[in-house]
Amino acid sequence: HSLGIPSAAIIANFAFYLVFLTLTISALAQARIETELITANLTVILGGIVVAFAIGYGLASRDTMANFLASFYSRSKVHVGDVITVDGARGKVIGMDSTSLTLESDDGRLIVVPLRKLTTEKVEIHERASAEE
């Protein structure tokens, strides 16, 4: 629960055992016991763990990164105040952040559209926002 990190216990356990193994191997080396095989195996295991985490993080953040990159391409095309139709949803753009676009439909519903839809779907701009908005 430290700092509100949900996986703090897992991270703390991993750090503890990493320090424990490092100190154990150092102590064995000081006692003049061969540790090259243990060190080589641990290096391969830790490398595999790092690669697995990198791949997992990359796959998990794929949609977020797609939305974030789409924000750079779509900011000049759609503006707050425009009336658009995207992915079958029509409404007035009332907000845009780095990952999503918020539309207000004619009946007052709020519709949140991921920004990647602006680059992958057909977008109809019905009205442009006036310069005063």
Task: Describe this structure as you would to a colleague.
With 133 residues, the protein is of the alpha+beta class. Helix content is 50%, strand content 20%. The chain has a five-stranded antiparallel beta sheet with strand order 4-3-2-1-5. Strand 1 and strand 2 form a beta hairpin. It is rod-shaped.
**Proportion in β-strands:** 15-25%
* Computed structural class: alpha+beta
CATH class membership of the largest domain: Mainly Beta
How far do the termini sit from each other?
44 Å
Written as H for each helix and E for each strand, in order along the chain, the element string is HHHEEEEHE
Which regions contain 5 or more consecutive residues with pLDDT less than 50? Answer: none
Radius of gyration: 26 Å
- State mean pLDDT (0 to 100 scale): 89
State the strand order across the main sheet: 4-3-2-1-5
Q: How many distinct domains?
A: 2
- Global morphology: rod-shaped
Key phrases:
five-stranded antiparallel sheet; 133 residues; alpha+beta; single chain; 2 domains
SSE layout and pairings?
Blueprint (H helix, E strand, L loop, with lengths): L7 H23 L5 H25 L1 H13 L8 E4 L2 E8 L3 E5 L5 E5 L1 H5 L2 E5 L6
Antiparallel strand pairs: 1-2, 1-5, 2-3, 3-4
